[in-house]
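Page header: ASSEMBLY MODEL / two components / 558 residues total.
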Amino acid sequence: MDVYLPIANLSVNALVIIGLGGLVGILSGMFGVGGGFLTTPLLIFYGIPPTVAAASASTQVTGSSVSGVIAHSRRNGVDYQMGGVLVVGGIFGTLAGAGVFRVLQQLGQIDTVINIVYVLLLGSIGGLMARESLASVRAMRRGETLPPKKRRHHPLVANLPLRWRFYRSGLYISPLAPLILGFVTGMLTILLGVGGGFVMVPAMLYLLGMGAQVVVGTSLFQILFVTLASTMVHSLTTKAVDIVLAVLLLIGSVTGAQIGARFAQKLPPEYLRLLLATLVLLVAARLAIGLGFRPAEIYTVELLK
Amino acid sequence: MRLARLIAAFFAALLLGGASEPVLVPEVSQRDIQIQYGFTGAELLLFGAIVYPGGTPPARDSDIVVILKGPPQSIILREKQQIAGIWLNAASTEFRSAPAYYAVASSRPIDKIVDKRTAAIYEFGLDNLQLSPAGTIDPAEQRRFLSGLVDLNRREGLYKQQEGSVEILEGVLYQARLSIPASVPTGTYTAETFLVRDGQVLAAAVREIEVRKFGFELFVATVAEYQPFAYGVCAVLISLLLGWIGGVIFRKI
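Prediction written out in full:
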């Protein structure tokens, strides 16, 4: 079933894109991440221009985080105050990211930078997650329970001036910390088309020291608004949001997310984290290999307007 | 209608028969290509008649060259090189008028029909494209970039050279088939037909083909370009709605 994408200017097989969205949806439902870190590389691999892939993937992440935010807010799992600060940082991040995007595009280095940032991010976060989850899986096998980590924010965070009380997160820290965190993930959203959940969740846990019960909900809340801002920024600057592509991806991912959520209930969380870590590392390895190997196309064409 | 036009032109040419030069009466199977939801490319039939003064074709064979060309584009071509183990865009050049699409079909191999100079003048063949390069002037480098562009576009079906694919019937009717892939840009395309004998171009004629988006695809592309704010708001609303509906439906199951 061929469908013509009016912005990407090419025909794709609708079933392939829906299937791709479904696959990402299953993973995002299982692991509670947006899945943008998979969508963008897979779309590029399928032949969608990188800019259109990143822009449309961020639109898709908006849609796939809605139901999560609703579910978590019912359970009181969203710290709106913290989320608000993150969103403000995130919106500034998307604007700054758009500027960086344009400069890199003019230099012709946007693709390489996207790839390198992906490799570094996924490699380091995947590595950290793998280490942590391997430790807990081993402990579980031996029937021990790891001593619960003392929840503390990072000393760097503690040194920032101006402190606010974040009641739901159980924190008394400077709002500058989440503001900076939001800014960084906002930039990632524009550049990579990712929601940033896989950066945000570990940072909230280990840098800010937020309570685990509000981490996922608050991160989804931030992702919802920042990907929304990112879609707007892309629409106004790169004009690369392909609405047909986003809808096809969403049809798949919304369905897949529900299936994934059901899988997740059947697996122990330690194994889930290990699986996610493996997946993240695999994507990072694939991209790293791609950087070093001679690419299929040596030449690329960019239109001048 | 088209046939009527062709026949009319044919007889008009016959009446003008006093002229000593042959005349081409070309036509294309589709003058308006509409890109819609299921568009996977189009196949064009370029055909027509060669009208000779006096009405009889000469004993010696003539050749036909057909060139279908897309709108010229200003492009930057970037070349990846391996630097410190990483492949990245290292060199680039600008072409001010690279056709978005270029296909040439001929009744015999081009180097058998005309000499190099004539081929260059009429841009017969992929080796003879005039792309108005800007920036680097070094001819060796220009050739490298040019062959890189041609190779890339050839594999994407945007550039093609089909020598020997033009059929000539009874020395007066010719036809060629050229396909356009789905990824072509919109704009005005030209179908040029050349009649060649003894290395000389005796007659040439042009038809224009309009490639445009149509219906929903045109609407989406236009709104995205001219109403970017409204487009962004719509994209956001649609994704919110789909996400929300999905959550509601699956909670009930």
